[in-house]
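Entry for the shared binder. Reason: the reviewer on the internal report wants the predicted structure included alongside the sequence.
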Amino acid sequence: MKISRIARIGAIGVVAAIALAGCAANETSSPAGSDKPPAGPELSGNLIGGGATSQEVAIAAWTKAFQGVNSGVTVDYDPQGSGAGRESFAAGGFAFAGSDRAFKTDELSSMTFKTCAADSPIIEIPAYISPIAIIFNLDGVDKLNLDADTLAGIFAGTITNWNDAKIAATNEGVKLPDLAINPVHRADKSGTTGNFTDYLSAAASSVWTHGSVEEWPTQSGEAAQGTSGVVQAVEGGKGTIGYADASRAGKLGTVSVKVGDTFVPYSPGAAAAIVEHSPLETRDGKGDLAVELDRTSTKDGVYPVVLVSYLIGCETYADPAQAALVKGFFNEAISPEGQKAAAEAAGSAPISDSIRTKAQAAIDLIVTK
């Protein structure tokens, strides 16, 4: 398996077009909803993608399986962040992107996707579902219960000490120190930040007034590059708190979030539940499966601080040689086997059968002839 970082040229998102050379045999499509399409001729070539750091571990698992049955294929995935991944895909640098949010409708109407053939729609597949863990480092405390307003106050910089009455109110019996809170956020443009601030904006709008944004909107707290940087900053500090894909929570303290009248810890099952209870957005493209997450749901057992990370590709490619490679890789990712491998490696929540059926129909739109 080959997973490597690609050197970026120029500013993030302005990536020079990469020669997506390689040949690929035509692949047989399957009916929508089948577990896995029938195997076609073995593929060969170099598939280049990049984007969300959250998907990196899952991408590695899917790559191993995909290359296992296509020995002539190499997959290079550059985990440079969701925003940069989308921009590089649009610029023609990547054959596919991983992103912790779908393209916004106004972006779709104003952007040209050089990876795709002229006038080709894009497809956006919700392939990776994961809770965002709210992680902290506090001596003697490994679990906390926090409501949305309190979380918003901490990250907005209006709640600044761990023994604040609002934190104590939901954590009876927990010895909270008289210690300054150091909130850690992403320094880079991040889909994880976008999903986290989307939750704060929806569930605590009177406290978090900065909206749903991918770039951190305030100067307070500590900035760290990428998911790894946030985790390292929280681990290395005292009184730190941050947010990261749950697969990276490790042994840090974690927060249970108030949903209705109960506090719900993160888990793959609770993350999958919020997606099941959320509708798809209305989009023009048949293969554009953007989920409209219900961040304020009060249904039992849902965890609303969740990210849905997408695999993004084209219905028709400017370089037809890439189509079969992308189609085969996406099929591997959404298959029950692929979802199980990602869950085991990254702690993600496997997509439901209903999402898989819609995703398979979208992938089947990719033109390989």
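Summary line for the report: Residues 146 and 257 are 5 Å apart (CA to CA).
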